[in-house]
């Protein structure tokens, strides 16, 4: 069998002659030109793309998460006393202020990503936030700490949406959640060991007249800057631009995407398109879902070490006990992503993970047993972690065109900054150690997400039915496109 497909093959497939719709299950089965290529060639190429893209991007995002959320670890390691963060809401302000530039600069970041290229853009991001992290090691007051957090938000703003945007352009719709989950869970698992790494760093307390928390920022900042150099040489670009694949492989990848959802060729952004994409109510539904998913994730990142210490554990044990819930969350995240891709369902499995999060939140808020409250952190972490890539996959599966993908991905991830602001403000110092006010705010968002999933499922199912009955024009501008439920 030839390893290349003809243009006529692609035209026939886009014309709909080979597309099969299973009306009973509402699944759309798209051959996506795989049959026109040697299966071994397809499998080998996709596996090569996986290995080139996912480990590196997952590791870099893990560093971003560590640098973004290590404030709680540093606070436990002595920063609280040195910078007097327990006075008023200083810690909440220093945590929260990061998210304002982080949210504002998401869409501009994705809009310039293609014009300057992924390699230059992502390198600027990584080196920039590494320098910001390094600066935190030498701040004399909590005000300067907050300023460094602002710059951290500036340089991290375009990073996550760029990675999610790039990943979704390489794969078909029912391949993407596993990849997003691998990328995200690898970062979560690595991040879960950040507290143990930080515990080791604190042993340097007193060296060079620096406290343990200063060494945390110093070493992690330097490592991030070095990683920025690695990104320059190895980060993958979009499939139409990347140099690590052959022209034959490029054609096969673009053919698969074109047959699956018809947007392999990038379209040009215009102001009219931008406002049209932003006016889609479904975009804002996805954004609110992401707020509901990221808030408990940020709670775990910013407060789990503090919550564990509040149970009566020592500083050392609190740092060490922060790791296991993250490892469990990584395994749970991949399991649900595999099931979601296997069943071609998104909404159902998100709701299941919402309920897992809810159980954990109620146990953490009201259990009198410290072991039970610690177990609750496993559930909160697992449920929230799994929902983050799930929302991104749910969104990515139900849109077409590069411009809409870039705007929607950036807007959704920017909304995640709202979850971070809420996590850093409703979990108030006065509510320590149980944080009931924050727990109930997080619980409310889980119920909101369940409601939104129900609404979007109803809308997508209705549009699919009307399209099959010929009462509605092509969905998302593509003749053979149907929404994923």
TrEMBL record:
It is found in: Membrane. Residues 53-465 form the Major facilitator superfamily (MFS) profile domain. One of its GO terms (molecular function) is transmembrane transporter activity. The keyword Membrane applies. It comes from the Eukaryota. It is a multi-pass membrane protein. The keyword Membrane applies. The chain crosses the membrane at residues 53-71, 91-113, 120-144, 150-170, 182-201, 213-235, 282-308, 320-340, 347-366, 372-394, 406-427, 439-460. Its main location: membrane. PROSITE patterns: MFS (PS50850). This is Major facilitator superfamily (MFS) profile domain-containing protein. It comes from Agrocybe pediades.
């Amino acid at each position: 069998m030839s390893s290349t497909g003809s243009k006529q093959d692609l035209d026939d497939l886009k014309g709909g002659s080979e597309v099969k719709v299973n009306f009973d299950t509402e699944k759309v089965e798209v051959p996506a030109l795989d049959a026109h290529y040697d299966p071994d060639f397809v499998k080998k190429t996709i596996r090569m793309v996986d290995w080139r893209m996912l480990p590196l991007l997952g590791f870099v995002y893990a560093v971003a998460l560590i640098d973004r959320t290590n404030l709680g670890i540093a606070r436990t390691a002595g920063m609280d006393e040195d910078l007097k963060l327990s006075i008023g809401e200083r810690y909440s302000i220093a945590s929260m202020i990061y998210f304002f530039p982080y949210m504002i600069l998401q869409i501009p970041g994705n809009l310039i990503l293609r014009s300057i290229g992924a390699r230059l853009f992502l390198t600027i991001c990584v080196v920039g936030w590494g320098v910001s992290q390094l600066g935190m090691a030498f701040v004399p007051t909590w005000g300067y700490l907050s300023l460094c957090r602002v710059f951290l938000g500036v340089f991290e703003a375009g990073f996550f949406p760029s990675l999610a945007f790039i990943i979704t352009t390489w794969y078909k719709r029912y391949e993407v959640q596993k990849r997003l989950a691998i990328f995200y869970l690898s970062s979560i698992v690595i991040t879960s060991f950040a507290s143990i790494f930080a515990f080791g760093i604190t042993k340097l307390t007193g060296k060079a007249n620096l406290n343990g928390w200063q060494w945390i920022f110093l070493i992690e900042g330097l490592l991030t800057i070095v990683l920025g150099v690695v990104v320059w040489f190895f980060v993958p670009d979009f499939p139409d631009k990347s140099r690590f694949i052959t022209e034959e492989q490029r054609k096969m990848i673009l053919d698969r995407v074109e047959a699956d959802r018809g947007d392999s060729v990038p379209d040009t952004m215009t102001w009219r398109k931008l406002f049209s994409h932003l006016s889609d109510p479904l975009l804002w539904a996805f954004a609110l879902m992401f707020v509901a998913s990221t808030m408990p994730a940020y709670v775990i990142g910013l407060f789990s070490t503090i919550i564990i210490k509040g149970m009566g554990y020592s500083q050392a044990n609190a740092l060490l006990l922060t790791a296991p819930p993250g490892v469990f969350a990584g395994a749970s995240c991949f399991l649900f992503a595999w099931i979601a891709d296997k069943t071609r369902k998104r909404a159902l499995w998100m709701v299941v993970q919402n309920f897992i999060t809810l159980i954990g939140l109620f146990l953490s808020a009201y259990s009198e047993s410290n072991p039970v409250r610690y177990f609750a952190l496993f559930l909160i972490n697992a449920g929230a972690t799994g929902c983050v890539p799930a929302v991104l996959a749910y969104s990515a599966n139900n849109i077409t065109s590069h411009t809409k993908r870039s705007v929607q991905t950036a807007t959704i991830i920017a909304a995640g900054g709202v979850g971070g602001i809420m996590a850093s403000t409703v979990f108030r110092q006065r509510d320590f150690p149980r944080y009931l006010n924050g727990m109930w705010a997080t619980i409310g968002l889980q119920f909101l997400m369940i409601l939104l999933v129900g609404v979007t499922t109803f809308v997508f199912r209705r549009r699919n039915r009307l399209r099959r009955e010929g009462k509605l024009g092509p969905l998302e501008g593509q003749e053979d496109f149907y929404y994923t439920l």
